[in-house]
Amino acid sequence: MNPILTPELEPEAQSATLISQQDIDTICSALYQDGWGVIENFLSAPFVDLLKTDLLALDEQEKFHKAGIGRELDFVRREDIRSDRICWLDNINETQNLFMQMLNQLMTAVNRRLFLGMNHYEAMYAIYEPGQFYKKHVDSFKGQRNRIMTLVFYLNHDWTAEKGGEFVLYPEEGEEPITTLQPKAGTVAAFLSEEFPHEVLTAHDTRYSIAVWFRIRDGEIPL
Ligand code: OGA
Ligand code: MN
């Protein structure tokens, strides 16, 4: 990645956005072999702090709203299915810009290795208050070829098992989880959006994350 010119930020925070070749290899191999993968400490602590500060400031400015399910005309609020609140990232400041540069680097690297043709992404902050959850779901329906790959980044320092809020990933068929993950600061989970049902178990402490979908924009589906 080219050096990122962000004079306001400490050099430490700037270099924190670089993705190592090793992490790129790990993620690409896992996606290729299994369709999913998890990397702990993918985001450095200073970068997690920048993102969490941005998230908290946006929440303070009341930029978050109750999440729903479905898109556009199909959108409905279903608090029995998910009860978190969300805020879309929109490259509105230096922190989001750094995060998006990192996503660009990652999307390009994964495309290069796995020929997925992803050309666009959307990213949202999510806050789960104690008692909140997101029931088992898939992020994209088969054949829609819209959301190709999901990434979830966690921003919770000092998370412990008692705090719940685990991310649980399931196989396409069957109820036995593939993996259950605590939402610890710096961890990223990545999986193919159409293939893996997943859920967020009830959190017992405030839980912060960023969900990202790498997509193929409508009308640009490779034949
Ligand atoms: C989602 C989602 C998982 C998590 O937002 O679609 O599944 O661990 N999030 O926050
Ligand atoms: Mn999901």
What is the element layout, followed by pairings?
Blueprint: H1 11-15, H2 21-34, E1 36-39, H3 45-60, E2 65-66, E3 85-88, H4 94-114, E4 120-128, E5 134-137, E6 147-154, E7 167-169, E8 179-181, E9 188-192, E10 198-200, E11 207-215
Antiparallel strand pairs: 1-9, 2-3, 3-4, 4-11, 5-10, 6-9, 6-11, 7-8, 7-10
Helix pairs in contact: 2-4
This protein binds N-oxalylglycine and manganese (II) ion.
Describe what you observe in this structure:
- The protein has 223 residues and is an alpha+beta fold.
- It has helices at residues 11-15, 21-34, 45-60, 94-114; strands at residues 36-39, 65-66, 85-88, 120-128, 134-137, 147-154, 167-169, 179-181, 188-192, 198-200, 207-215.
- The chain has one domain: q2cbj1_9rhob like domain (Jelly Rolls).
- The chain is built from four helices and eleven strands; from the N terminus they run H-H-E-H-E-E-H-E-E-E-E-E-E-E-E.
- The strands form two sheets. The protein has a seven-stranded antiparallel beta sheet with strand order 1-9-6-11-4-3-2, with helices on one face. A four-stranded antiparallel beta sheet has the order 5-10-7-8, with no helix packed on it.
- Helix 2 (21-34) crosses helix 4 (94-114).
- The chain is globular, with a radius of gyration of 17 Å.
- It binds N-oxalylglycine and manganese (II) ion.
- The site of manganese (II) ion has 3 residues, from loops.
